[in-house]
């Protein structure tokens, strides 16, 4: 019996002991985080799936794992198909699947600290048609059988200086207090870790790649606040930074803090707060107002200090990536390098900046067929060599005190095929179309998404992920509410100060993957004769785009000009940071296409 088969069997025994006929296991923590600590990696422990989004449902005689289009290939590589059915979330939701497969009168368990209230309502409605019951468990059955489950992390919570934050925490809380007063509310519960970090101007190290601390906040109408964080994470410097308007409490006292809100009208974000918080407030007699976390929009609209920091971080990071691309131009054709060795080399160049705090996510280092796995994570078992006449895709980023970076480059090692060059150029054309678009206020990312896909669509091909996501300021590399996608957040208007990724791609399963990603800043633009205010994108990321993978005959005159202008900017920004052979290489890599 395999390790994951044994774990599944043990979980089923535990479900019997708890009187359950099934259980739902998401990738999530108590804060609805995308990236989670080791203690919360229940799905990976149970199934082997290492992606950042997915859910398993375990019944007595059947189990299924649900993933979106980014993980179609990865889930089959990592999860045993004998144990779990593979289900695409675009085809069937967890609620629908349970509605069809739950035993009549069955009791399906869930952890109320790992699901939203809306999810609970949807599943309860579906399984109720079969007379089944959705049961909030007192003790998570996965935790009961995970005998070596890691402890909660213990990293300290640290002040984030005004030199990087740009605004004092007291000012941010005052804005929230005014919003509460205008809405007729007494308090707002802040549950998302990056929201807590932004509101209180604090950062931490509890989650890999995301500088946050396990904590909760409550902001009151008078501007005072409660911050719930483990006492061992708190220093005298942090207390002084927070000031006397912020009351500190133990992290485990949060539920008691919710009880203290009884009789008050409390704002809770139904997208970012788990079902257990709603239940606790309701039991305490609080009146709940479902509102979006009031810090989400101002956090997404970066202030001048954050924008300046992002530009500095991007310039520094672009030099590290360019040094890596120079190294790869020699080491790739020479042979002997692998996905792991290349990722390690890229990390070393970032570390040489002397300012890297962490990577902003696990580097996606995909050679040949592994490049076709959108969110691939290399391991010793999957590590492929980088070989001649192939494509190598590397998607990576850094966390710096002044900004968060995210960049993807696809590099032709040797001579690419005509198909590779055509697809690369189509992806590049889509990237340029998005980078150069002008649009009126009120336009959403969903309205722009097709611009990046149009050239692929013309050939009857596409990619199964969004074209852009928001990015934080020394925070989460995936930040809402804005997205450039045909799904999920597509209706959110793009506003000045928002940072998004621009990352169309193409993936041919079993052969190669292509993605070209820069970060862009939403900004006001002047257009002669314009009859209304207009917005556009300022490209923030600077590193060469592989000219050897481009089919110039597919480019328009304006597209050629964009590439040449972009490479001129790369040379201007990155060039002064490079030396010797690397600088000489950069000049060649940034030469005009003509």
From TrEMBL:
One of its GO terms (molecular function) is aminopeptidase activity. The keyword Metal-binding applies. Residues 533-592 form the Peptidase M24 C-terminal domain. Keywords: Aminopeptidase, Hydrolase, Metal-binding, Protease. Coiled coil: none annotated. Residues 7-139 form the Creatinase N-terminal domain. This is X-Pro aminopeptidase. It comes from Blastomonas fulva.
